[in-house]
């Protein structure tokens, strides 16, 4: 049975292996250079305290491959579900060959078990290799990324560490299950893609923020968490403060909410909306002649703070394990459904 | 004699429609059984139930004394060539034999190779490029080399041209003589079955109409024609299978074990095709819910 599974699967397996090998070689050749230019840059900037600017420049320079690789790791599980999962059973059903193979001296369950284990394992291994290689390559960039692409940010988190393995296993078994229920290849592929996309969106939006209770805290305003200060020209009595999705002292944290609160603790702005503060912007510390630091010191003195809920960076690996575990449980449930269904309903 | 297939009030329902119902039949071993009936009569359903691809909705079925597809041992005893004789288009002929060898404990590799060579199939040819007849022969080879005790074939020749059809059935017949196994094959054409079957099951409207050995069936069914007469005036023991009347004349197909003495009737022997058609006749079929067993 393993021979037959390999014989049917070897074409796409060899092709995938070749693509992954090319990717691995490209990463292996460019990775060390990237790491050394990062450490050289950090050694330079530490001396004159300009690391913020170095990070911005370094990340800007390599943003394109960074995003492309992240996308590859995010797409790989979907492709496994689409092109390995969905056709696994439907191709047999459409050609009628299931009737040939199910009438050899091998039970349907054993046939399904070998197919699921063999191809599913290949999907997980591919996602694992790809995920770990990209995690290694992106190391310097993850350390210098802007908050939107920090390691804990929804887009990047799913393309690092071990989570892609969970996604790949789930997407593959989802494809097999949908294929078994729909019984036709193209609709099964479309439905697999749609369902997987929904799950992949629901996870960071609805589930992941609550895997552990977020840390809630208030911070003084400063360079780390204020994106910009604006004044209204006509009146000159209102100061607008735009907060960043970042908190001071926790680089790389995933900020779930960030509000500007007044001395009484009432939110006056945040989460993208600028917060307005009534104070003179024509004279005093926030006059155009003064600097941003002086103005923020005055705002802090008046009692304005940032109130933020966030998941700190040191929760990266716990989150990776929990999320991979959740996908492993989903995969197990779908696998069970497959075995139940092939016994009861498919013929 | 032992049975290869026993069904007790067997039924299968798809949604709200019965594909097969109240099927009670007992097929003794050592026969080539023809399962005949119009399209949609439930032939494929019965064969799939026997092969274990379907689970019955009602009743029970045992094949060679075991539940169909209960385990590897049961699967090894039953060969199944599905409708349209599916094969893997991407695999070569040799790879199909390898598949059979890997998945069947009783695989007869010499038989398979010899058959492929005799048919003139190139081992390195992809199955997707074979003609319909060659594909059917490849599927039959897989079924035969498995060395089953019962080989089930579902409309194996339906899509073949007359020559390929004859060659296929010829090959099947030679194999049954050589290796002594039971065969159940279905067709909607009696002419296909006439040459090779010695046991017949007629299925119509998802019910078994008649089942029995061909010789016995032909011996106890007769066509009577004569002056017009109502069915209730036939002698006792003469069971009406079909009836046709004109103003002056009546023609009956009847079943009886007793000799027919009434001089008013002209008695003729039925061909197998006539017999099958008589049982498929719907007008009488409605009043005859119980399948007839002829032993």
TrEMBL record, chain A:
Q: Which species does the entry assign this protein to?
A: Nonomuraea corallina
The question of whether Membrane is a record keyword is answered with yes
> Where exactly are the transmembrane stretches of this chain?
66-90, 111-137, 157-181, 188-207, 324-342
**Annotated protein name in UniProt:** ABC transporter permease
Keyword tags: Membrane, Transmembrane, Transmembrane helix
From TrEMBL, chain B:
The protein's UniProt keywords, in alphabetical order, are:
ATP-binding, Nucleotide-binding, Transport
What the entry lists under PROSITE patterns is as follows: ABC_TRANSPORTER_2
Check the record and name the SMART domains matching this protein.
AAA (SM00382)
* InterPro entries in the record: AAA+_ATPase (IPR003593), ABC_transporter-like_ATP-bd (IPR003439), ABC_Transporter_VariousFunc (IPR051782), P-loop_NTPase (IPR027417)
Checking SUPFAM superfamilies in the record gives:
P-loop containing nucleoside triphosphate hydrolases
Domain of life (superkingdom): Bacteria
ABC transporter domain location: 5-230
Under the heading Pfam families, the entry gives:
ABC_tran
Instruction: Extract one GO molecular function annotation from the record.
Output: ATP binding
Name this polypeptide is given: ABC transporter ATP-binding protein
Q: Which organism is it from?
A: Nonomuraea corallina
């Amino acid at each position: 049975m393993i021979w037959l599974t390999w014989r049917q699967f070897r074409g796409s397996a060899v092709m995938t292996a070749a693509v992954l090998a090319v990717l691995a070689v490209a990463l292996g050749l460019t990775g060390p250079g990237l790491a050394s230019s990062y450490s050289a840059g950090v050694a330079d900037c530490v001396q004159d305290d300009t690391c913020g600017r170095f990070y911005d420049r370094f990340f800007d320079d390599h943003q394109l491959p960074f995003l492309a690789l992240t996308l590859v790791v995010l797409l790989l599980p979907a492709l496994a579900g689409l092109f390995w999962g969905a056709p696994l059973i439907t191709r047999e059903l459409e050609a009628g060959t299931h009737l040939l193979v199910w009438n050899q001296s091998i039970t349907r369950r054993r046939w399904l078990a070998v197919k699921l284990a063999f191809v599913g394992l290949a999907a997980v291994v591919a996602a694992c290799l790809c995920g770990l290689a990209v995690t290694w390559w992106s190391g310097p960039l993850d350390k210098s990324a802007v908050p939107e692409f920090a390691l804990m940010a929804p887009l990047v988190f799913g393309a690092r560490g071990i989570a892609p393995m969970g996604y790949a296993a789930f997407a593959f078994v989802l494809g097999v299950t949908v294929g078994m229920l729909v019984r036709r290849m193209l609709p099964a592929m479309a439905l697999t893609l749609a369902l997987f996309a929904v799950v992949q969106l629901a996870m960071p939006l609805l589930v992941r923020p609550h895997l552990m209770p977020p840390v809630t805290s208030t911070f003084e305003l400063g360079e780390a968490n204020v994106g910009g200060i604006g004044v209204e020209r006509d009146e000159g009595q209102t100061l607008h403060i735009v907060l960043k999705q970042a908190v001071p002292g926790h680089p790389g944290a995933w900020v779930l909410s960030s509000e500007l609160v007044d001395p009484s603790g009432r939110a006056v702005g945040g989460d993208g909306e600028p917060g307005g503060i009534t104070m003179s912007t024509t004279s005093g510390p926030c006059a155009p002649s003064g600097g941003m630091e002086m103005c923020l010191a005055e705002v802090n003195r008046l009692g304005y703070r940032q109130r933020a809920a966030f998941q700190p960076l040191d929760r990266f690996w716990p989150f990776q394990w929990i999320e991979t575990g959740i996908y492993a449980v989903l995969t197990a449930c779908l696998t069970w459904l497959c075995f139940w269904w092939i016994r009861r309903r498919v013929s | 004699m032992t049975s290869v297939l026993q069904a007790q009030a067997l039924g299968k329902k798809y949604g709200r429609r019965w594909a097969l119902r109240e099927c009670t039949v007992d097929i003794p071993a050592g026969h080539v059984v023809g399962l005949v009936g119009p399209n949609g009569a439930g032939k494929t359903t019965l064969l799939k139930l026997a092969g274990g691809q379907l689970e019955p909705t009602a009743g029970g079925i045992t094949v060679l004394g075991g539940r169909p597809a209960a385990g590897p041992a049961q699967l090894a005893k039953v060969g199944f060539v599905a409708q349209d004789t599916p094969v893997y288009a991407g695999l070569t002929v040799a790879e199909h034999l390898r598949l059979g060898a890997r998945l069947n404990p009783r695989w007869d590799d010499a038989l398979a190779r010899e058959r492929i060579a005799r048919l003139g199939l190139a081992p390195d040819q992809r199955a997707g490029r074979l003609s319909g007849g060659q594909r059917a022969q490849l599927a039959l080879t897989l079924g035969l080399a498995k060395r089953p005790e019962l080989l089930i074939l579902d409309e194996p020749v339906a899509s073949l041209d007359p020559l390929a059809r004859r060659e296929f059935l010829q090959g099947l017949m030679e194999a049954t003589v050589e290796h002594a196994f039971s065969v159940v094959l279905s067709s909607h054409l009696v002419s296909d079955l006439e040459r090779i079957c010695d046991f017949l099951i007629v299925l119509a409207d998802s019910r078994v109409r008649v089942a029995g050995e061909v010789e016995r069936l032909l011996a106890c069914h007769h066509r009577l024609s004569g002056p017009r007469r109502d069915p209730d005036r036939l002698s006792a023991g003469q069971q009406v299978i079909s009836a046709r009347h004109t103003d002056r004349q009546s023609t009956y197909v009847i079943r009886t074990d007793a000799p027919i003495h009434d001089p008013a009737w002209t008695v003729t022997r039925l061909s197998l095709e006539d017999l099958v058609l008589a049982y498929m006749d719907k007008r009488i079929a409605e009043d005859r819910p119980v399948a007839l067993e002829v032993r």
